[in-house]
Amino acid sequence: MRCPYCQSEESKVIDTTHDSQGGIRRRRKCEKCGKRYSTYERLIRQTPLIVKRDSTREEFDREKLLRGVRTACTKRPVSAAQIETLVNEVEASLQQLGRSEITSRVVGDMVIERLKDLDHIAYIRYASVYLQMADLHAIRDEIDKLLEP
Ligand SMILES: [Zn+2]
């Protein structure tokens, strides 16, 4: 950050304010010439690239995720709004990770974690599509518990 008056890079932050868009405004004082100026940092939300099982990368596809969750929730007592909220939460969590890449497994786990709280059948449906056999054995205990009278 250069002082607009003397181009010095040495400055002291005197005040920091956050705006509703997630931007940060900083009042600075130049250490060299003593003049004051403001800088504004805009938060750029970026969704990481998804690394698939075969190591290929693809852009995070919100619509695709939405379709997958909707399919798992077919004929279950889960509203469109709940599904929308779940997908929004997953997308926001991915952005908050601040990573450039993330495995598809992490995304799947995020969805599964949330579906578990929402609807057990949808949760099992999604998990059975998403997870591999070893993981399915691991959740079998959960399923057994659900089937107990
Ligand atoms: Zn200066």
Summarize the main sheet: 3 strands, antiparallel
Rg over CA atoms: 23 Å
Q: Would you report the number of β strands?
A: 6
| Count of helical stretches | 5
Determine the mean pLDDT. Answer: 87
Structural class: alpha+beta
> What order do the helices and strands follow?
EEEEEHHEHHH
Low-pLDDT sequence parts: none
Summed up, the domain count is 2
Which strand order does the major sheet show?
1-2-3
Helix content: 40-55%
Separation, N- and C-terminal Cα atoms: 65 Å
Bound molecule kinds, no repeats: zinc ion
| Global shape | elongated
The proportion of strand residues reads 15-25%
Descriptors for this entry?
three-stranded mixed beta sheet, 47% helix, three-stranded antiparallel beta sheet, elongated, binds zinc ion, alpha+beta
Overview of this protein structure:
The protein is α+β, with helices and mostly antiparallel strands and 149 residues long. It contains five helices and six strands. It has helices at residues 62-72, 80-97, 104-118, 120-130, 133-147; strands at 11-18, 24-30, 36-41, 49-51, 57-58, 101-103. Strands 1-2-3 form a three-stranded antiparallel sheet, with no helix packed on it. A three-stranded mixed sheet has the order 5-4-6. It is elongated and about 75 Å long. The protein binds zinc ion. Zinc ion binds next to loops.
